[in-house]
UniProtKB/TrEMBL annotation:
UniProt keyword RNA-binding, yes or no: yes
Biased composition (Polar residues): 40-52
The protein, known as: XRRM domain-containing protein
Biological-process GO terms, alphabetical: telomerase catalytic core complex assembly
InterPro entries: La_xRRM, Lar7_xRRM, Nucleotide-bd_a/b_plait_sf, RBD_domain_sf
PROSITE patterns, per the entry: XRRM
Protein's organism: Fistulina hepatica ATCC 64428
XRRM domain location: 325-465, 492-651
Length: 653
């Protein structure tokens, strides 16, 4: 075919011009995208960025169909630029996909539902892009004026317990369509709900619940009967053998416990919940205000430095017992803390009230973004001391301020209130029973310990704080309760049964160390002034209760069955210079002979863990294990064949 030269040149110019405009458009879109990201980052630097993901072709198809649905009230029957739809496809998800990728995916998976066309001629400065899309069923579109709010509310349901892997907009639409056994998409819109703590105007995070608008009221009825809100109601979804294991949507929904509620019922329940929450907050605020004056009078200090409130004995109903439902007067409400702070920072800030750190602070109950928190203290004494410390004005300069500073103009100081009465009961009712019982036990032990302290150190709290000042050397806080030297079943842990061992081989293991420490109880290897007699191999296994060792470390803790076993272990390694030749050495090598002193490794060094270090170690052990260790130590101490602590250092046989 003959083509005139002039026409050929014109065609090449048009092609070149099109390519140039396409390149300019891509460059413009990249610049606009970059500027938009920079602007978004600058406007909200606290928002956590999410990693962009590329959706599948099916996800792109569903997201575009949702964007062009009847609910969206998009341009009926007209083409819509893809550049307008892409930023609004999936709220809360960062989607890394270009217009060309979307057009390619739609032509591959949605050719029967969508028309996609490329703009051939458009202004190079236009931000609309080069692709447009519209639905093919333009003849079935309803006039947007007839689709009012009541129309869509009838077709909207609340979904709860949505499976984790289907919690995106596309995933929910695919799952619901599959559960309805429909070939075409049956979802019109997916709305994620925000939490009352979320900042105003923020994008709701994906959770296990959402409001889903369906295409037909029959779909609503089908979902409500198949996945009823009441778990005891009869379900109409197919049985496992009828549905088949290949249906992953049905299987995931059944395992997650998916349940559905009509929107009108959800609105009623939500209003009831909001009213109940407001009533609780109002009651708590009223009760807290009632107790402020009584608390202030009890904590007031006269000019002579005497704490008037401490002279009154507590009422009989408030005396702490092991059977108490919760520890009385151990809860403090802190106001005006920094909203961007955290539990660790607050713990260190409140720990300045004590001379021995934050041992008196049991737990800081704080939620990010609020300016109040609850502090659970180990005892009522610790709660009173914390309140006394914050009588002087103190504030947080920022969220990471753990030292505190003088409040500046316009900054409210941190205020602490002792929570009592009904607010105290309401708070502890929400705490798990096991945690409450542990708190009662600890507070009871601390109160019993301080009752034995002569001089009434607790009654002199106000005088000590007044005389020394907040930042000076304050009076020494009573130490934590020490376990009684006479072991009994009521002991919190078996005293004198933990040994710290240094210089073990970093590549060893618990089994090897257990055999190595068992040498201390072998009768053939040594005798301890004849006091042990013949112990035998069975005692070597029973003496070492547990070896607390982590690979790569050169030290470990050894829990022994009784204090006598711990004393024997220490005596053996004090008298014997033994080291591990390698990680699997369970017999040990004696230092001496022809070994060069420079080439000799450090011998195993043992020390009995006592005092506060012993308490800290046992606090990390589960209560069930502690009680079992106490029971075992008591039984061994009552047996005649249990080894007793040696009178002097052991000698190698």
């Amino acid at each position: 075919m003959f083509v005139p030269r002039s026409v050929s040149r014109y065609t090449r110019k048009v092609a070149a011009s099109t390519e140039t405009r396409g390149a300019k458009q891509q460059e413009l879109l990249q610049v606009e995208s970059t500027s938009e990201e920079v602007s978004k980052s600058a406007s909200d630097s606290k928002q956590i960025s999410t990693q962009a993901t590329k959706p599948s072709n099916d996800d792109i198809k569903i997201l575009i169909l949702l964007a062009l649905s009847d609910y969206s009230k998009s341009e009926n029957g007209r083409f819509v630029p893809l550049s307008f739809l892409l930023p609004h496809l999936d709220a809360g998800a960062a989607i890394a996909v270009s217009e060309a990728d979307v057009a390619k995916a739609l032509r591959a998976s949605a050719a029967d539902a969508l028309d996609v066309r490329m703009l051939i001629s458009y202004s190079s400065a236009s931000p609309l892009g080069g692709y447009e899309v519209r639905r093919k069923d333009i003849g079935d579109l309803w006039p947007s004026s007839k689709l009012d709010e009541a129309y869509w509310d009838e077709r909207t349901v609340y979904l709860e317990n949505i499976p984790m892997r289907y919690q995106s907009a596309a995933g929910i639409a695919q799952m619901v369509t599959s559960l309805l056994d429909a070939a075409d998409l049956r979802v019109q819109h997916v709305r994620f709900l925000s939490h009352h703590w979320d900042p105003q105007g923020s994008v709701p995070k994906r959770k296990g619940f959402a409001l889903v608008t369906l295409s037909d009221p029959q779909d609503v009825s089908a979902l409500l009967s198949a996945y009823p809100w009441d778990s005891s109601a009869k379900r109409t979804d197919p049985a496992p053998d009828e549905r088949g294991s290949e249906d992953s949507y049905w299987q995931a929904a059944r395992e997650a416990g998916l349940r559905v509620l009509p929107k009108r019922w959800w609105v009623a329940l939500n209003e009831e919940y909001q009213a109940y929450r407001a009533r609780l907050l109002a009651d708590a605020a009223r009760d807290a205000t009632t107790h402020v004056e009584a608390h202030s009078a009890r904590m007031s200090v006269d000019q002579n430095g005497k704490d008037e409130g401490q002279t009154q004995s507590p009422p009989a109903s408030s005396r702490l017992m092991l059977s108490s439902p919760f520890p009385y007067e151990c809860l403090v409400l802190a106001r005006n803390v920094h909203p961007d702070t955290n539990k660790t920072t607050l713990r260190k800030l409140f720990g300045h009230a004590y001379t021995d750190g934050d041992a008196g602070i049991d737990y800081v109950d704080f939620i990010k973004g609020t300016d109040t928190c609850y502090v659970r203290l180990a005892s009522s004494y610790d709660a009173q001391k914390l309140c006394m410390y914050f009588t002087a004005p103190l504030a947080q300069n920022d969220g990471l301020d753990k030292e505190g500073c003088q409040p500046s103009a316009g900054t409210a100081p941190i205020k602490l209130e002792l929570v009592q009465g009904r607010p105290e009961e309401l708070y502890w009712e929400k705490v798990p029973e096991k945690v409450r019982a542990q708190a009662v036990r600890r507070a009871f032990e601390l109160s019993e310990s301080r009752m034995e302290v002569k001089g009434g150190e607790e009654s002199a709290l106000g005088e000590n704080l007044e005389s020394t000042g907040r930042c000076g050397k304050s009076a020494k806080r009573p130490s934590s309760p020490q376990p009684s030297s006479s072991l009994s079943l009521s002991s919190p842990f078996p005293p004198g049964c933990v040994v710290l061992v240094h210089n073990v081989h970093p590549q060893t293991n618990k089994s090897t160390l257990r055999k190595l420490f068992g040498r201390a109880f072998e009768s053939k290897s040594r005798s301890v002034d004849g006091s042990l007699g013949t112990v035998g191999e069975s005692l070597s296994k029973a003496g070492v209760d547990y070896v607390d060792f982590s690979k790569g470390l050169t030290s470990c803790h050894v829990r022994l069955a009784s204090p006598a076993h711990a004393a024997v272990l220490c005596a053996f390694f004090h008298s014997s210079q033994i080291f591990q030749e390698d990680g699997l050495d369970d017999r040990g090598m004696f230092i001496g002979g022809e070994m060069s002193p420079d080439a000799t490794p450090a011998s195993l060094r043992v020390e009995l863990t006592q005092g506060r270090a012993e308490e800290i170690y046992w606090e990390k052990i589960p209560e069930k294990v502690r009680l079992e260790a106490v029971r075992k130590a008591v039984e061994l101490s009552r047996q005649k064949d249990a080894p007793s602590p040696p009178a002097k250092r052991a000698r190698l046989g």
